[in-house]
Amino acid sequence: MRFSRFRFRSILFTLLAAFCVAGAAPAMAQLIPGQTGTNQEEEQQQGESQSGSPGFSTPQSNIYGATSIQEVGNDESTQLQRFLEAQEDLLDQSKRLTEPPEPGEFEKYVERVIGRPLPRYGADLLLPESRNFAAPATATVPPDYRLNVGDVVSISLAGSVEGSTERTIDANGNIFLPAVGQIHLAGVRSGDLGDVLDRAIGTQYRNFRYGVRVAELRGIRVYVTGFARSPGAFSVGSLSTVANAILQAGGPNPNGSMRSVKLIRNGQEVADFDLYELLLGGSRVNDAVLQNEDVLFIPPAGPQVAVFGSVTAEAIYELRGTESLADVLAIAGGTTQLGDAERLVLYRVADGARPGPMEVVIRDAATMKARPADIIQVLSEKNLVQPTASQRVFVKIEGEVEKPGNYYVEPGASLSSVIALAGGMTSRAFPFGTELNRNSVAAQQRKNFDDAIDQFEMTLASAPLTADSSISADRLAAQNEGARLFLEKMREAEPDGRLVLEIEPTATSLPDLPLENGDRVYVPPVPSSVGVFGAVYRPASYMIADDPKKVKEYLSQAGGPVRAADKRRLFVVRANGEVLPRSSGAMGEEALPGDVIFVPVKTSSKDLLTKIGQISSIIFQFGIAAATVAAID
């Protein structure tokens, strides 16, 4: 569980206050070096000193080393305050390590060029939140580990001398064994420890067997300097390596190198570790085990290039200075399965370079040296939309055909040819009402519909600013709430992607329309009714009479419009998806099988609900099915 520094401080101060109230100051004084608790004799001396008898001690020399218990509490508070300050420093360091670092200059430049941020490779791998990179003290001690001061060695003997003991290597690097004397172990390899003890004990004993192991390791102190994210001195385990210490320091900062971490020991460089070898290849070459007082130096970052597009790992990469463009592409994991394997685009700002992007053939990339600040783009080829004439088509045919099913046809196949593959239409087929649903049309409808809803939402948001003063606040609030609920329903509506076919009502075949991949064709049976819905007295579906009737006759059959109807905005939706508004003469048109006649509700021109009434026409303009409108209204 994580606590804020303020909560942590308040808990500790509460505990301190509880100790003082309970008379625990003497007990706390025992925890401070040089201070002891009181006993009966000391209490008697205090009583005598208070009465002026012999043995009086001045306040400067009393048993607590302070003039009063209050001062003892103050001294405790001072030490506690220092402890809290140290904890706050640790919290600040932890916060610095978990917060994302500010991007470097090249990162900002890349973002301006490609229009989005591109991370530095390894930043998300080296700096995850709340991860402990320290080597565990219980790890197996490798043979090359050299013993340090403070390490504990366990020795077991049998034969002419028996027993077991544990010895800590002292400040001089030695351990002491009775009858044997001092044995120098500091700097001895773990794998050579048995031989050293065998020779030392063998000077005094014969015919013995021994067992030895490193029982406990003492931490060491190392220094991480240079362009580290959190440079400073670190206490790490004795088995820690260069990578452990670098990661404990948060890794290189945005201006620090990931290709060169120098290990300096006794003033001499003994190793140069490349973090890319660990991150890219899993290699720990030169990842040496650290020794006490080692220094790790992170130099400034070397040349950097950016790789984006259809590559395995888009990122900013650091170079050693000798890589070619092909090498950089390999470091980025190569192109993806959709990437263009024949060419790449290079943005170069080096001196003498022609401004703007240039095309580089992949086979030439191996001979072109990468330069600082290069930006390499790998284009995507295989996911490009191909011409309709070159696409093979997968089509689903349903309804009144002899053999409904899924058909995979050659590029350029027409609607009529696919119907022929399905065995042709049955005798009950109604070609005029054929539904052709297309993915590309649905996507365009969705965009247009969302635009219309956004415009309507903006109108709704501005309604309080333009509201008529004659409308009461309660009525306006009710209108706004109703409009909001209407908007929520409208956002749930989905476009059907239907493509309106140019076909005569009496047609017996379908047009030679080129099909697209994913098309769905449904040939319905001949409808037997005409629907009348909306603001009429008797909304229903009415059987088609033997004698043709006009739209207005079916409207009369439904009882005609009610008083609240908006007769001027009446419209008809035909079986082929076409919409006929009243303004185009819909009332005088002959009703066709499958027609839907819809009469909206009239609203006051000063009323916000006017916009809601008008939304039905917007829906049909952008291709939403009539059934959706009927369900919403």
Explain the overall architecture:
- The protein is 31% helix and 19% strand.
- The protein is built from 17 helices and 24 strands.
- The chain has a 5-stranded mixed β-sheet, covered by helices on one side. Strands 12-11-15-13-14 form a 5-stranded mixed β-sheet, with helices on both faces. A 5-stranded mixed β-sheet has the order 21-20-24-22-23, covered by helices on one side.
- The longest helix has 30 residues, at 69-98.
Please render the helix and strand layout as text.
Layout: H1 5-21, H2 25-29, H3 40-51, H4 69-98, H5 105-114, H6 123-126, E1 152-159, E2 163-168, E3 174-177, E4 181-184, H7 193-202, E5 208-216, E6 220-226, E7 232-236, H8 242-248, E8 261-265, E9 268-273, H9 275-281, E10 295-298, E11 304-309, E12 315-318, H10 325-331, E13 343-347, E14 358-361, H11 362-365, E15 375-378, E16 393-399, E17 405-409, H12 415-421, E18 435-437, H13 439-466, H14 473-492, E19 520-523, E20 529-534, E21 540-543, H15 551-557, E22 571-573, E23 579-581, E24 596-599, H16 609-621, H17 626-632
Parallel strand pairs: 6-10, 11-15, 16-19, 20-24
Antiparallel strand pairs: 1-2, 1-5, 3-4, 6-7, 8-9, 8-10, 11-12, 13-14, 13-15, 16-17, 18-19, 20-21, 22-23, 22-24
Short structural summary:
The protein is α+β, with helices and mostly antiparallel strands and 633 residues long. 31% of the residues lie in helices and 19% in strands. A hairpin with a 5-residue loop joins strand 6 and strand 7.
